[in-house]
Amino acid sequence: MSSSPSPPPSKPYHEILGVSEESFDRLEEHLDRRVHDGLAYRHLSNHRSGVERGTVLVAGTVVRGFPKIPRTLTVSTGVPEHFDGPVAVEEKLNGYNVRLARIDGDVLAFTRSGLFCPFTTRIVRRELGAELEALFDEYPQTMVCGEMIGPENPYTAHEYPGVDSIAFCAFGWRDCVSGRPLSVPERRDRYESFGIPQTRHFGTDEPAIVADGLREIVEALDEEEREGVVMQSRDGSRQLKYTTSAANRGDLAYAFSMPFEYGQEFVFRRLVREAFQSVEWGESNSTASERAHRLGEAILCSMIESIEAVAAGETVGNRQTVRAEPETVDALLEHLRDQGLTLVIDEDRTTNGERVVTFCKRSQSTNDRIQNYLDGQIVDV
Amino acid sequence: MSSSPSPPPSKPYHEILGVSEESFDRLEEHLDRRVHDGLAYRHLSNHRSGVERGTVLVAGTVVRGFPKIPRTLTVSTGVPEHFDGPVAVEEKLNGYNVRLARIDGDVLAFTRSGLFCPFTTRIVRRELGAELEALFDEYPQTMVCGEMIGPENPYTAHEYPGVDSIAFCAFGWRDCVSGRPLSVPERRDRYESFGIPQTRHFGTDEPAIVADGLREIVEALDEEEREGVVMQSRDGSRQLKYTTSAANRGDLAYAFSMPFEYGQEFVFRRLVREAFQSVEWGESNSTASERAHRLGEAILCSMIESIEAVAAGETVGNRQTVRAEPETVDALLEHLRDQGLTLVIDEDRTTNGERVVTFCKRSQSTNDRIQNYLDGQIVDV
């Protein structure tokens, strides 16, 4: 990584971003300024003035934020409503969203909010260094968009067959500065040709046909506890997502394991999704009841577990395991602590030159409030 | 009811309320001014500057709001923490909270937020006219606090054995102006002597003994689908509530039948209560799972029902049945419409001189949003 200060922008940022000077001035107040290991950058951690959340300003250029993907609650009407031409259906993976770009000659990984991630950067360079260099040599202004998946994951751990630890899986190819996507077939061909793993493609068809066939795909994904699908117009400009019940349940269990950290809206939305899916699929009373039972367990059992853990003096939070070269793990832990997280290390060992660490990002509010309520603190409601 | 304008206050309202003139000036901005059938009053629909929500300023006097009752999530610690002397345990009923006061010679009923309710006023005069007159003759400055319960209820219908339609049940006796409560034994004696029905008393004991015995009481209430208990210091000054799982489930089912009307916090709190109760009761995995299943059904099945109703072109909302003299029902419907509610009348018949009306308070947001999502409107999350 270059440790020299970034050169001045080749042209003003507002021109690069395609907004007025005044818009950019307003935007600038909301940019977070960061320096990591000599890399100075600014990023937008919330959507503002028509610029995507996660947009990064670095070394005189821009790494555009990945756009938010809208969702439908009713497939049969939502898909035809949203698309007027062929729709590509690809798998939506459950991990964390990253964007890779080559800045001043170095491949860097940025998380959804535009934070440079030293851990992801090292992992993708180790796993796909040559492939990415070849890609960026040919298409230097590319933003490689994908998901980091697998069980040994510092943010969102989820099992995927064939992924023992952590792996990158591409799902988008965009212009780094404008954010414009490549069409689905071109993108898939290019990733194929560069040997970069990419998300599963279930097919491309007319909206009505996609809507008809989606339930079967989603049910199969659900059985494998997978997350869902992203649908796109062939040119990649319009996107729409739809998720499995397993994903909703997983999210609920996760949220309720830290009940006082997660937004109540986060929870509410997932409950609503379940109800719409059940209605659209015309579930019988007994099937809907089974769905309700699994939902209830996701909510209650994870919350009970956390309360019992606090009662037993344990730390509640997001518990993850990572495995990598010692220096990579060091960089990750430092990075997480730099963000103000309190890490409790549960296990730390070295196997075959790799360091394997299980740590818990302590959820301050959840630990404190559960303890208070166990101590008999009254609640004013 | 007196139709003459209210006389000027005997002393300024800030003195009656016991706040400074400046406090009262600030408070005054938040008072809602109402006129009903010649009765002019102001009320505080939200807690402000140390004055209880629901406080009414009428005819130169005050009807104090009923204080919010704090809750514990853990009985074993919460009860001893909250009380330092004997604790009276009484049943908490599931209906709507009303306060009765005699103003200018007339017994009037005010709801929780301080709204005069012409329906409740007529019902209590019809059912308990003589008893209340005797009570107010002897204790004119009393505020009779209680719950309107039963299945034929314009706000909160719930079955109670022995209540065919709607009934008043007292649970508090306070000074109308200061809000100061009578002690529990005095209150119970007085209601007994005036022949006014009152809430069940399970006993009065030291905090540790109450905490130990509460589970048994709550489990018995739960089996009968009853709401819970209110605990009070003997002098009535400190209160604490604790509710059954049945009450939580009932609330959740109700809230999710109108998912876009109810606060997400409302839902969240009830889920948290369930988890703490399960942990405190040391439930086995299978008992906790059963609790989770019932919880899931309360959430999902009521939401599915509402979505299906909207899909079938029906109106979703709070559906209630009332039975009373035609004039009383007219007064209720007018009162509800005056509050901006859209009523859909499902049934309207007369039996034995009584009018029986089933109506639905239409939930605008829920109807609209469910319809939009069924139509495929995307959601931006």
UniProtKB/TrEMBL annotation, chains A, B:
Pfam families per the UniProt record, alphabetical: Lig_C, RNA_ligase
Superkingdom: Archaea
Domain annotation RNA ligase: ranges: 86-242
Keywords: Ligase
GO molecular function terms listed in the Swiss-Prot or TrEMBL record: ligase activity
SUPFAM superfamilies: DNA ligase/mRNA capping enzyme, catalytic domain (SSF56091)
Record carries keyword Ligase: yes
Positions of the RNA ligase Pab1020 C-terminal domain: 254-377
NCBIfam families for this protein: RNA ligase
Protein name according to UniProt: RNA ligase
Organism expressing this protein natively: Natronoglomus mannanivorans
